[in-house]
Amino acid sequence: STWANLGLQDSASPLMEQLIFFHDHALLILVMITVLVGYLMFMLFFNSYINRFLLHGQLIEMIWTILPAIILLFIAMPSLRLLYLLDEINEPSVTLKSIGHQWYWSYEYSDFNDIEFDSYMIPTNELANDGFRLLDVDNRVVLPMNSQIRILVTAADVIHSWTIPALGVKVDGTPGRLNQTNFFINRPGLFYGQCSEICGANHSFMPIVIESVPVNSFIKWISKNVNS
Ligand code: CUA
């Protein structure tokens, strides 16, 4: 996201792409309903009361009951499709475990021994000139692009939420529970996220940074960190 971006961020995963399509679809229906109802309400002001003896209108009531139900189906069906698609796990090649703390994230790469680290926000007074304030962290999550990635989210103290808009991921980390989801990053780059459960005084200061790299670079990063 850059300055004055009021819409959704550009997607970096197929699921987020689908979420954006669904958002646009729902918004289009919303605009059409608003325009129609707005037009009807406006036109009522100029209505001359010619139907003084009108007592019932069975047909019109049938139409304006069933029609909205059909319109709602056009939103409900794609919504359900997406809901189930988001929870589908497709043979993940890497599993990342992220644990929410007050107020930082810690990560474990359970597939590879001994790789675990904490990830703290960089305070404004220590920020590099090209850093993003309240968004950059000291230790980034390095993940391979073009691979199915499973994340397991939990928390150590209170409820947190591991949320990355560009990847379409938003999972609560709850103490005593382990939540699972998965995603597929389809381009390299840095993807920023923030905690999105109100978790205490420093809720705003526990960001997430994903560094999406080619698989070769990921393997290099893993082998460098396993040895140390
Ligand atoms: Cu952790 Cu809000």
From TrEMBL:
The highest taxon in the source lineage is: Eukaryota
> How is the co-factor bound, per the entry?
Binds a copper A center.
Q: Which GO terms describe its cellular component?
A: mitochondrial inner membrane
Membrane topology type, per the record? Multi-pass membrane protein
Which cofactor is recorded for it?
Cu cation
Q: Which residues cross the membrane?
A: 26-50, 62-86
Location in the cell reads: Mitochondrion inner membrane
Keyword Heme among record annotations: no
Q: Which reaction does it catalyse?
A: 4 Fe(II)-[cytochrome c] + O2 + 8 H(+)(in) = 4 Fe(III)-[cytochrome c] + 2 H2O + 4 H(+)(out)
Which UniProt keywords are listed?
Copper, Electron transport, Magnesium, Membrane, Metal-binding, Mitochondrion, Mitochondrion inner membrane, Respiratory chain, Translocase, Transmembrane, Transmembrane helix, Transport
- Signal peptide location in the record? none
Pfam families, A to Z: COX2, COX2_TM
Q: Could you tell me which residue ranges the Cytochrome oxidase subunit II transmembrane region profile domain spans?
A: 1-90
Limits of the Cytochrome oxidase subunit II copper A binding domain: 91-224
One GO term in the molecular function aspect is: copper ion binding
The Gene Ontology biological process terms listed for this entry are:
ATP synthesis coupled electron transport
Protein's UniProt keywords contain Amino-acid biosynthesis: no
For this protein, the record's SUPFAM superfamilies field holds: Cupredoxins (SSF49503), Cytochrome c oxidase subunit II-like, transmembrane region (SSF81464)
Q: What job does the chain carry out?
A: Component of the cytochrome c oxidase, the last enzyme in the mitochondrial electron transport chain which drives oxidative phosphorylation. The respiratory chain contains 3 multisubunit complexes succinate dehydrogenase (complex II, CII), ubiquinol-cytochrome c oxidoreductase (cytochrome b-c1 complex, complex III, CIII) and cytochrome c oxidase (complex IV, CIV), that cooperate to transfer electrons derived from NADH and succinate to molecular oxygen, creating an electrochemical gradient over the inner membrane that drives transmembrane transport and the ATP synthase.
- NCBIfam families per the UniProt record, alphabetical: CoxB
**Similarity-based family:** Belongs to the cytochrome c oxidase subunit 2 family.
Q: Quaternary arrangement and interactors, per the entry?
A: Component of the cytochrome c oxidase (complex IV, CIV), a multisubunit enzyme composed of a catalytic core of 3 subunits and several supernumerary subunits. The complex exists as a monomer or a dimer and forms supercomplexes (SCs) in the inner mitochondrial membrane with ubiquinol-cytochrome c oxidoreductase (cytochrome b-c1 complex, complex III, CIII).
Protein name (database record): Cytochrome c oxidase subunit 2
Organismal lineage:
Eukaryota, Metazoa, Ecdysozoa, Arthropoda, Hexapoda
